[in-house]
């Protein structure tokens, strides 16, 4: 019994062991089958992950190339801006020289006409003086021993001429001085005419040089221009609805996306500049104010508009014909200043800023409004053509428009009665007109100062 029990126990132990082993194998098989089923999914996920990683690598490479292109574009933009500003400055200087020469030429011509009128008024006296001199030269003194009576006549004649000769001598000297002055004036007129002709040729060369630069700048903005075409059309519709410049600016920034973006950019730039300037030392702040337009690659004003007093360049060459605060002829006062610009003269942006409006507006002719930040706006009107778009950032001294030949009558030309083109300039702060005279650079104070 003990042997059977022992055998049975051993058999039972062996059976349990086999069953456990079998169960373990089944359990392994049960776990192994799902893993085998999941293997293709893991491979697919790995392949997908590799694809994503590859795409990330390609995207990063594209981003790197785009960053390089942006750097190249920024450098190209800086070079173009520098060349454009330099060419515009030379053109303005040439226009100023030509205007000075024309002024001197007008003065010389007036003096020449005055001298001619003076000589013409004394024609009879000059003829008399010349006749007497000729007769005296043809009739020498008589011989003393041949005819004494002739000596008597000669003495009497000499006594009579004695009283007249000093006057004749003075008139002869004055005639000589007048004739010499007339010759000098004619030489001066001829010389100034030659210089004017040279300056006009130089003007043509400068304009030819500037034209492709402006075209290149606008070509670089061609894509943005197409995107802004609808906005510009909307701006024209708004201009027809607006009743004043203040209303026009408000409508543009409220209803025109490009103008709204420009206003937002101006506001943001003002905040960033204020934060950056707060960190500057007094010495750094003085250096920034000393050269506010030095960086040609800037994408926002380097200095607040209110701090630019005494630094802004004149928008066009020419004398002031009406100033801020002068009677406007209708019982009111001028809200801006009017410049007698040259025919087809270039117009530059007097400050950094974003274009809030560009296009024809009522009787103003072509109108340009620049958002200078800090609630300041600069209005330019009376041009025949503008070369910038709404939302575009422009640099001080950058060409933005050109004058016509004065044939098109604008509000400014009608008010003044001018036959030449008139550029109207108005500064506005928080919706009201302000005197622009404190802002103009000293070199331009003769032209646009207060």
Automatic annotation (TrEMBL):
Q: Which InterPro entries match?
A: Cell_wall_metabolism_enzyme, Dup_hybrid_motif, M23ase_b-sheet_dom
Q: Which ranges carry the M23ase beta-sheet core domain?
A: 334-435
* Coiled coil location: 49-118, 165-286
- Which keywords does this Swiss-Prot/TrEMBL entry list? Coiled coil, Hydrolase, Metal-binding, Metalloprotease, Protease, Zinc
Which co-factors does it depend on? Zn(2+)
Q: Which Pfam families match?
A: Peptidase_M23
Q: What is this protein called?
A: Peptidoglycan DD-metalloendopeptidase family protein
């Amino acid at each position: 019994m003990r042997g059977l029990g022992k055998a049975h126990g051993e058999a039972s132990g062996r059976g349990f062991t086999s069953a456990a082993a079998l169960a373990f194998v089944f359990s392994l098989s049960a776990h192994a089958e799902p893993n085998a089923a999941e293997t293709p999914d893991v491979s697919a996920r790995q392949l997908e992950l590799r694809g994503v990683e590859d795409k990330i690598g390609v995207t990063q490479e594209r981003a790197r190339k785009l960053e390089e292109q942006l750097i190249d574009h920024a450098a190209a933009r800086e070079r173009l801006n520098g060349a454009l500003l330099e060419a515009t400055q030379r053109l303005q200087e040439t226009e100023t020289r030509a205007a000075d020469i024309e002024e001197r030429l007008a003065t010389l011509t007036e003096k020449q006409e005055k001298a001619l009128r003076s000589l013409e008024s004394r024609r009879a006296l000059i003829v008399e003086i010349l006749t007497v001199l000729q007769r005296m030269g043809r009739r020498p003194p008589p011989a003393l021993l041949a005819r004494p009576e002739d000596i008597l006549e000669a003495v009497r004649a000499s006594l009579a001429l004695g009283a007249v000769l000093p006057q004749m001598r003075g008139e002869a000297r004055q005639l000589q001085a007048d004739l010499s002055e007339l010759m000098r004036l004619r030489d001066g007129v001829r010389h100034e005419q030659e210089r004017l002709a040279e300056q006009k040729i130089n003007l043509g060369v400068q304009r030819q040089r500037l034209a492709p630069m402006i075209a290149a700048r606008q070509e670089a903005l061609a894509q943005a221009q197409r995107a802004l075409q609808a906005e510009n059309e909307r701006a024209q519709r708004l201009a027809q609805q607006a009743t004043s410049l203040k209303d026009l600016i408000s409508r543009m920034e409220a209803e025109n996306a490009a103008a709204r973006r420009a206003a937002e950019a101006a506001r943001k730039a003002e905040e960033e500049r204020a934060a950056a300037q707060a960190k500057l030392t007094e010495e750094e702040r003085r250096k920034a104010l000393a050269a506010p337009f030095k960086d040609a690659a800037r994408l926002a004003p380097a200095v607040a508009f209110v701090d630019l007093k005494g630094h802004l360049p004149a928008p066009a060459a020419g004398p002031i014909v009406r100033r801020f605060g002068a009677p406007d002829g209708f019982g009111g006062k001028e809200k801006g200043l009017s410049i007698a610009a040259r025919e087809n003269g270039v117009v530059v942006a007097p400050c950094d800023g974003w274009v809030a409006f560009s296009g024809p507006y009522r009787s103003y002719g072509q109108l340009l409004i620049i958002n200078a930040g800090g609630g300041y706006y600069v209005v330019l009107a009376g041009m025949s053509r503008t070369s910038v778009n709404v939302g575009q950032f422009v640099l001080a001294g950058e060409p933005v428009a050109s004058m016509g030949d004065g044939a098109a009558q604008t509000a400014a030309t009608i008010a003044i009665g001018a036959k030449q083109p008139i550029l109207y300039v108005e500064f506005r702060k928080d919706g009201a007109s302000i005197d622009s005279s404190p802002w103009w650079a000293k070199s331009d104070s003769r032209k646009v100062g207060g």
